[in-house]
Amino acid sequence: MATDDVTPNAAFRRLRGHRSPGEFAAAVRRAGREIGEQVSCDARYIHRVEAGVIRCPNYAYERVFRHMFPGYSLTDLGFATRESVRGRGARAARNTPPVLPASPTGARPYGAPGNDSTTEESDVQRRAFMTGGSAAVAALAVGAAAVPQAAAAPTAKGRRPGATDAAALEEAVRRIRLLDDRHGADALYEKAGHSLRAAFSLLDEGARSRHVNDRLHAGAGELAISVGWLAHDSGRFAEARSHYAEALATARMAADPALEAHAFCNTAFLARDAGRPHEAVRAAQAAQQAARHLGSARLLALLALREAGGWAGVGDRAACREALARAKADFAKGPADADPEWMSFFSEAELAGLEAQCWAMLGDHTKAAAHTRRAVALQDPHFTRNIALYTAQLAADLAASGAADEAADAGTRVVGLLGQVKSSRVRAMLKSTAHALRPHAANASVAGFLERHQATALTPRTA
C-alpha cells in the first residue's frame, strides 16, 4: 500500500484514550488470549494503525478488536471495509503492485486469482518474508511440523524491495520477540538466523524510496538485535556480540539514534553477563547519550538500569545506587508515545528484577530476594520466559541467603516451566541453585527439588 495518501485513523486513536501505544498493545494481546487468538501486537502496530498505514486489520486482529469493543464495526473502529482493500481490483486502483517473492511452499503469490488476502498485515504477506526462517521458527517453537526453508533471494529478479518487504521484515521481528517471550531462546536461534540473512539481502538490493530504505535499515538492525539476544540468552556470547555490533553499524550508517541506543543497551547487558562490567558501564552510558533526545523516559530508565548493573559488577555500590535512583525517577515519569516498541517487556516487574540483580551482584541477597519476589508477583503472565527467569533468580537469591526451603520451592516451580521455556540462562541458574542446595539434601523440600532437577538434566532437550 502506498504511504503518501494515507489518512490517520482518528477513531482508533480516540479508543486508545489515555493509554500509551505500548499499554494499549498489551491490552490487545490480553484480549486476544481471552478469545484464543494469538496476536503479536506492539506499540509500532498501534502507531501504524493510527497513522492509517494499516487500512484494514487481518481477521485475527478484527476478532480481537471486536471483542474489545463489542458492537463496533470495522468502520466504527476507523478502518476501511475489507471489500475496499481486498483483491486485485483494489490494488490496481491504488496502483501499488505487490512486491513479494515466489513461495517455496507452492502457495499462490499475493493477489493471484483465488487469493483473498487483504492488507499489508495479511498472513500471506507475512509468510512471504518469514519463509526465510521465522515461520519455521514458529513451527519449531510450538512443536508443529517443520516448514521448508527458503534459500532464494527475498525479492523477485529485477525488482527492488518495497513497502511490503519492509512491513514483512518488521513483522518477523515482532514474531521472533513474541516467541522468545513465550518459549525462550534455545529453540529459536538457529532458525532466526535465516530471517536475518534475508533481511540483509534486502538491504544489499536497496529500495528506490528513501523512506522504505530507512524502514529496511531499522528493521534489519532490530532483527540483528533480536537474533543477538537469542544468542545471548542461549549462552552464545561471541555470536551475540557480533550481532549487536552488526546492529550498531547499521544504526550508524542509517544515522538512527533509536536503533543505536537499543544496540548499546543490549551490548551493555551482554558485557555485564560476560564478566566485563566496565564495558557494560561504557555501553550503557553511550546508549543514554544516543537516547537523550528521543523523548522516552522509560528508555532512559532501562539504560540507567543497564549502567547500574555494570557498576554492581565493578563493585561500586555508590555509583550503582545513583544509577538506580535515576532509573526509578525516569520510570516514575510514566509511559510515552515515544517509547520504543521493543520495550513492551519493560514493566514494573522488570524494574524490580533488574534492581534485584544489582543487589545480588553486590552480595546483598536478602534485599535481592525481596525485589525478585516483587518481580515474580508483578510479571504479566504473557511473558512465560520472564516468569521462569525471575523465579529462577528468586531461587538463587533465597539459596544464597540461607532460605533453603523457599529456594527449593521456587526452584521446583521453575522445573515445572522448563517444558514451555527453553532458555540456557534459566537452566544455568537452576543448576547453580541445585549445587548450592545439595548440602541441605536432608530437607524434604530440597530433596524433592534436587530429584526433579536431576530428572530434567537427564532428559534430552529438543531444538
TrEMBL record:
InterPro entries: TAT_signal, TPR-like_helical_dom_sf. It comes from the Bacteria. Residues 88-124 are annotated as: Disordered. SUPFAM superfamilies: TPR-like. This is Tetratricopeptide repeat protein. It comes from Streptomyces coryli.
